[in-house]
Amino acid sequence: MGEHAGSQERIDYRRAAFVAAYSNTRALPPSTMPEVAFLGRSNVGKSSLLNALFSRKSLARVSATPGKTASINFYEADGVAFVDLPGYGFAKVSNAERAAYAALISGYFEDERSHNLAVQLIDIRHDPTPLDLESVEALRDLGIPFVVALTKADKLSRSKAFAARTRDARLLELAPERVIVTSAEKGDGMRELRRAIAEATT
Predict the structure, then answer these.
(1) Is this structure's pTM higher than 0.85?
(2) Which of 59, 86, 155, 186 could form a disulfide with 101 if both were Cys (CB 3.0 to 4.6 A apart)?
């Protein structure tokens, strides 16, 4: 652990920049650098978490209409690619749209790329949904390293947030240190998340 003690600052997140958006996995560019992918249900706060991670207010666009991000969005900072995948499970889109989003997500992970880390986002206020459990199981089956980021922790007291972390680690059969409590609003968990990313991409 000692060699990584200061490695979370290896990436200057303030230098993060949008690279491109792809609506078809066949159009994805070759993987030339470590990649960290972010996935989760629509409205779980993915764009807000990315903005907090990058210490930027609006680099990742927060959609006013959940479930309408129909592309794989690439950002880059210090030679690391950050991949924002479409949200899944939004009820107000058509079956065809849901199937298209699912195909983008699975197509990305099944592509031969530098899958250094996946960050699975789950709303801390609720038990993981069947789709969340399915997503985690798919990452396990594909052998992709991942951590879980519990979002919107500012909506709960500290004691309830800690209890939710314990609950989700048990439900997901994960070591507690792989479940990170985050708040994009307050910046909670960004240090731990950056540490996990640094260790996966070094």
Answers:
(1) yes
(2) 86
